Amino acid sequence: MDKHLLVAVSEHRESSAGVRFACSLFNGSAGVRMTLLHVLGTAGQDAAAAAAMQRRAADMLHGVRQWAEGQGVLPADIETLVLPRRYGVLRDIVDTARKGLYDAVVVGGRYLSRLEQMYEDSVSRGLLWESVDFPVWICHQPDASRRNVLLCLDGEEPSYRIADHAGFMLRDCAGHAFTLLHFNRARTAAEEVLERGRMLLEENGVGKDRIETLVMESSDHVESILNVADRGHYAVVAAGRNKRQPDSFFNRLFTRSVTMRLRDNTQRFALWVSQ
């Protein structure tokens, strides 16, 4: 079964990180398709300005497509899509992803100043707060030399969903192994959590020799995950996110979940999130 990615691309250079990451991760593997999506800005009632914006977007996506084909992506496995803005960039991406039944949405992260982090959500940050029913991949500065997946399992269903997703997406990529990470609360519970994660990977066709486990004790899970990801040179950190979210804007800022904090710190690896 083919895997199909919806890759959001804007005029900001950092947004192409998603395309670069997908190309390096799959390395031209057959059975992986990409749709490059650009949501247009607003041009008001000026028809000429709108037409010019459409041409610039098409040219930009054509250039990104040519680059991807140069990295080994088959022309038949990549297409472009330019859409007018209807509800805002975030909701238009979500709407397109749902209608197209894509396996994941890939977004490039933009480094924001502290002021922007306080007052303006980027596309990838906003996606984490949407009630989305598809995995999201967030890529800042992909390092093509990185390999393997650090899969964070906490015993909640979202973490098992991202485990199932990771196994499906990378089952044919023998160059990537999986480390199942669990923060220990009770030894019996840890064994059960890791065994379920292992079964999900194996059911997707991942061999036992590509799976290892790691149990840790830590008071700061995010810092520990970042340290393990850095030491292990992982290409992907995958984690589930609970749909229960703080209601107020200030709670958003000061009581962020693990995946939100990881999103703020991710640099050389990609963060995969499922709800």
Main attributes of the structure:
Rossmann fold, 10 helices, UspA, UspA domain-containing protein, elongated, 2 domains, 275 residues, ten-stranded mixed β-sheet
Structure write-up:
The chain is of the alpha/beta class. It folds into two domains: 3-139, 3-Layer(aba) Sandwich (Rossmann fold), CATH 3.40.50.620; 149-274, 3-Layer(aba) Sandwich (Rossmann fold), CATH 3.40.50.620. The chain is 41% helix and 20% strand. It contains ten helices and ten strands. The protein has helices at residues 17-26, 47-70, 89-100, 114-119, 123-127, 157-170, 187-203, 221-232, 249-254, 258-265, and strands at 3-8, 32-39, 78-83, 104-108, 136-139, 149-152, 178-183, 211-216, 236-240, 270-274. The chain has a ten-stranded mixed beta sheet with strand order 3-2-1-4-5-10-9-6-7-8, sandwiched between helices. Strand 6, helix 6 and strand 7 (178-183) form a beta-alpha-beta unit. Helix 6 runs parallel beside helix 7. The protein starts with a strand and ends with a strand. It comes from Oleidesulfovibrio alaskensis (strain ATCC BAA-1058 / DSM 17464 / G20) (Desulfovibrio alaskensis). This is UspA domain-containing protein. Residues 3-139 form the UspA domain.
Quaternary arrangement of the chains shown?
Answer: single chain
Q: What would you call the structural class?
A: alpha/beta
CATH topology call of the largest domain: Rossmann fold
Number of domains: 2
What's the overall geometry?
elongated
Instruction: Note the main sheet.
Output: 10 strands, mixed
Low-confidence stretches: 111-121, 245-255
Q: What are the secondary-structure elements, in order, as H or E?
A: EHEHEHEHHEEHEHEHEHHE
- CATH class value of the largest domain: Alpha Beta
Intertermini distance: 23 Å
Query: What order do the strands of the largest sheet run in, or round the barrel if closed?
Result: 3-2-1-4-5-10-9-6-7-8
Number of helices: 10
Domain UspA: 3-139
Protein name: UspA domain-containing protein
InterPro entries: UspA (IPR006016)
Organism: Oleidesulfovibrio alaskensis (strain ATCC BAA-1058 / DSM 17464 / G20)
